[in-house]
Every structure is written in C-alpha cells, then in structure tokens.
Amino acid sequence: MKLVHKYGVQLLVVMVLLVAPQEKTCSLERITVASLGDYMVTDYGAVGDGITLNTASIQSAIDKCALEGGGRVVIGPGRFLTGTLVMRDHVELHVTKGAVLLGSKSPEDYPEMVSAYRFFGDEWVKQSLIFGANLVDIAITGGGVIDGQGEAFQVTTNVKPDRYINRPFLIRFTECSRVEVREVTLQNSAMWMQHYLACDKVLIEDIKVFNHCNKNNDMIDIDGCSNVVITGCVGDSDDDAITLKSTSPRACENVTISNCIISSHCNAIKLGTESTGGFKNITITDCVVKPSSRKEVIYGLPQGISGISLEVVDGGTMDEVHISNVVIDGPEVPLFIRLGNRARPYMNGVKMPGVGEVKNILIENLVVRNGGSTGCSITGIPGFPVRNVTLSQIAMELEGGEGARDPRREVPELEDLYPEATMFGVLPASILYMRHVDQINLFEIFVTLQNPDDRVPLIAEDVKGMKYEGINMAGMENIDVLEK
After folding, report:
1. Domain co-membership, 63 together with 194
2. Among 249, 250, 288, 341, which is 20 to 30 Å from 357 by CA?
3. Is this model's pTM higher than 0.85 or not?
4. CB atoms within 10 A of CB 410
5. How far apart are CA 115 and CA 371, in angstroms?
6. What is the domain range of residue 381?
7. Per residue in 173-225, pLDDT tens?
C-alpha cells in the first residue's frame, strides 16, 4: 500500500524489515588505545580452562597496561573464569573470537564497588563483573563472548532491596568519558546486562546481547549520560531492551539509536521509568522490534508488553524526542506515552520531585504488525498535559476482537502508579486513547484490525489543539476522533 505524506510525497510502506542496516555514521572519535601495545592475559598467569579463577591474573594485565600508558588487554581463545575486573584509564579489554570471559558463579568473587556518584539504587546495586568509575578512554571489544553465568544467582525474595543483593551487573561504568563497547557478544547477566551512569561520549556498536536467565535482565541501560551513540546492535532480553533512564539529577541527552534489531518480553524501546534529570534531544531511527526467540517469560509477556514507551513519572522533562523508520512486530501495545506523578525521590533526604513534563515528541514512518487488542495511549494527568505530539505516516495491524465498550466510561487516572503500557487494561478506543494532551497532530494513519472490533477507534478526553487528517481503517475512511 502507499501512504501519501501531507505535502504530497508518496511513501511506500513495506510490511517487512524495511530498515535493513545502512551505512552507519558516528560523530564520536574512536579510541585507538590498541596501537599502544597488547598485553596477553596468559602472560600474567591466566588459564583458559573454564575452571581456574583468573581474576588476579587478568587484573594484573589491566593494571600493568594502564601503568605503562595504556593499550589492549587481550583475552585469547579459551574459557577464562573471573570475578570482578576493574578497568583503568586508556585500557581496551579485547575478547578475541574463540574466547569466552566467564563470570564466576560465587557471589564472594564480586566485591562491592561503590562510586561517589549518587543515584536511585546505589544503596543496593554494588557488584559488577566489569566495573569502572571516573575513567577516560576505555573500551571492550572483540568477536568473543562475555558470559555472566547469571542463572547461578537465584532470587529468593521479592522484598526490596534484598532481591537485588548479590546479583552483579555484567558491565557497569560510572562517570566515565570516551567509552566504547564494540562487536562483543554479551550474555546471561545476573541483573542488568550493562549500566552506563553519568557517562559522556559513549559508543555501543555492533554488539549482540542475549539476556534471559534471571530477573531484571535488561539489555542496555543508558542512565543520565550525554553524547551517546548506539548502532548496529542485536539484542534479545527478558526485561526492557534499549532503555534510557535518569536515576539522578543528570539528564540523559544527545542520544542517537539506529540500525538495531531488538526483542523484549517487556519494553523494546523505553525512556523511563526513572526520570529525575529528564531526557533531551533523543533520536531513534531505522530499528526493528521483533518477537523474542525465548518463549519462557520471567517478566512481561511472550510477545512483549510495548514496542515504544516514553515515560516521565519521577519529575524531569522529556523534550525533543524524534522516532522514525521503525518496524514493530508483536508487542501487545505498540506505542505508550505517559506523564504521571509517582514522585519518587532519587535518594533519601532529597526533596520529592514535582510533576515533570513530556513535550515535543515526533514519531513518523512507523510500521506495526501483530499488535494486541489493548490499544495505544497518550496520557498526562489533570493540570499537567503531554504537549506537542505528532504521529505521522503510521501503518498499524492490530488484533482487535473486543466488544463494544462505553466510550464515556471512566478510565482511572492512576497517576502515582508504576507506568506500564497495559496499566489501564483494555482501553475503550481500539486504536488510540488520548487524555490530558495539548497540541497533538495525527497525520496519515492507516489501521487494519485482524478481528472485528466494536470499540470507538480514537478517543480524545481533555485534549486541546488537536489536528488530524487521513486516519483510515480497513473498511472505514476518514475516521473522526470522539472528543469528550
């Protein structure tokens, strides 16, 4: 089918993987520490038999490399077991093809590493396989594998914070500048796979991630970082996949995400939930969201909860988010935008945050297949609307199949609840439910329902400044919006 842009340009929308990898560009200057020399871990006593604990040997190679001005610490072919490794300035940890860096299964091999930077969760998230704080020019590269063996760290309680203790992240970098993670395969973390906190100039490129062995198995968490490029990555995670957070007053800003193929049982592309410092200047383009290869679920749904979730609930401002050329195949809710008021302070003793802002959101050239019946939503709260949202050139295939629901029925505000795309239950609108929104534009949206659905297609409640044109459903043309 062809969709016509509001300016008359025809666009061909192909309901397949229309975002094949393109030539990648990156404004970040590459780190070139490898030219300074190689340090083979086997020269420092490391044994790649999968049994010998090599923490001290590998750390010796890292320390020696840094002491001599930097270079490349090389993990050669074999299976090298280790506990926590602490990165140093100007060091590249290079895991070659045929090499596996194995995380120890013993919690005592992961000493607490606490950085000075305060954020929500720092009182209990203290262990990592690879850790660095306040460093410059660090990298993890190579065609090999880093495996956290995270299934060994069993969660025996759901009580916070106990359920997070003794579950190390695979990678955690805090307040570092010029960080690269390239070409490696990362798998089986006991917690989040990788956490970049308050870092600047971060490049994550051409990595593969598989994370389905424990709770909280995120793929990538970018937290209060600036000048970040994520490109060419393939990931499959039980919990959220590519996630931007702000667990401190520092904003997550100047981030580009492109040419990635991602799967999640929860949220594939997510800004939030933590939002203290906010999000600014975020561009996401040429990505594919597809069903997970793993059907067993720890959190979420087998098909995924959402394709795109944009959430501010702990204060902070989300401003200038541009998402384009994305295929979303499978998640229950393709699009969820939420301004709420959970108002959780990022640490004890600080002032409770006020209501944040969500504004200036542009989402265009979106293709959705096999969406669920819940419906999409864009919601603020009374007195605090989401502002200036444009949805343009969108083709959606949704399950439908719901009976008629009274469009006048009250959808609960739930303003202090954890934000989730399914939080309101099945919505009274089959396509899009909008509430507490100022200035929203809907252009050229075509929807196919797999099953007959008796709900109103679109509902706008307490919505001001709405413009819409070219909203069509199979069998129905020029659909109007029911305004309440």
Report:
1. yes
2. 288
3. yes
4. 8
5. 42
6. 1-19+259-484
7. 999 999 999 999 999 999 999 999 999 999 999 999 999 999 999 999 999 99
